[in-house]
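Collaborator request, handled under Task 6.
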Amino acid sequence: MQKYRHCLVFFVLLPWLFFLPASGEAKVVESAVAIVNGTPVLLSEFQKNVESVREQYEKSAPAVLKQEGSMQEIRQRVADQMIEEALLLQEAERRALKVRDRELERGIEEIRERFRRTAQGKLLEEKEAEAAFRQELEKEGLNPNQFREKIRKQLLVQKLWDEAVRSKVPPPQVQEARKVFEAIQKVMRGEESVLSEMDAEQLRVLAKRFQDLTAERVRARHILIRVGSGAGLAEKSKALKRIQGIQKELKGGGDFAELAKKSSEDPESASRGGDVGFFIRGWMVPGFEKAAFRLSVGEVSDVVETEFGYHLIRVEEKKAKQSLSFEDVQTELTQYLFQQRSQRKLDELVKDLKAKAVIKLNLPEK
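Structure tokens returned to the collaborator:
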């Protein structure tokens, strides 16, 4: 659950998480999870945010949800975050910060722009994009006016961030970034002693990222014929015959990408001619990964069976393991150091606001 703490602190800076309460909602104590200087943090908003975080974990790290007490910790941290955001919004209003109409329109347009492409990068028609946008509003339980108010509040808090945090944080020096780089290199070599000198968790995260950046990698296409987890012999036999038929077409001169578009049952990659992009060891299921790394560029595998079904794999490119220089990651490390310092400054601001605030927490038992 440690990673969740770092994620939540920056939710206030992200433009589509809707943690800030909408204005004009009934100030009923019984329906509030907290009262912050007389302003309610609504229970309904809290429940939506808890569910949103739970869904994120369900997709990216389901094992976390199985840990004892995980949901209680998520609920507590969501409540803490909503209280902090309420305090930051109140501070922005106290400082008389304003969001101009053109700033609001630009912020709304930036969010709308995200709905003009699918997750696969396909550009949508204007009507389709608008429908996707409206569907998201409906899912969040917002009408257009409430949406505008949400964005206005988020931009207001962003202005507070710029004034009270960003402008107060000095830019990191090159030697500071180099020191972090040297520490990460030691972690990548297995030297654990350096972890006591710096943020151990962050060093491990960065070391893993840099290892992934430099690891041997393969770019491949595949054609998948799915087989259900509880499939019987007849179903498996039918799927095997289908993939063998496609294999025969390939051997007869068929184009792999075209056959993937026509026949593959992996919809995400099929639209790209079966292209799954570059991957490193540990990213794919073992059978698929083992076959791909053994193939030469341009070579097509025999039928490969995995938990998803039967695959044919063609390797498009290979990249050998690379060395990593400081110059390759200097910008990222500088941003990392600035983020760390900004976080500490933000924590100081929130701590000061909490010390002056009157906060009543009414966290529900379930």
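The cover message to the collaborator said: "The chain has a mean pLDDT of 86. The first strand starts at residue 32 and ends at 36. Please let us know whether this matches your experimental observations."
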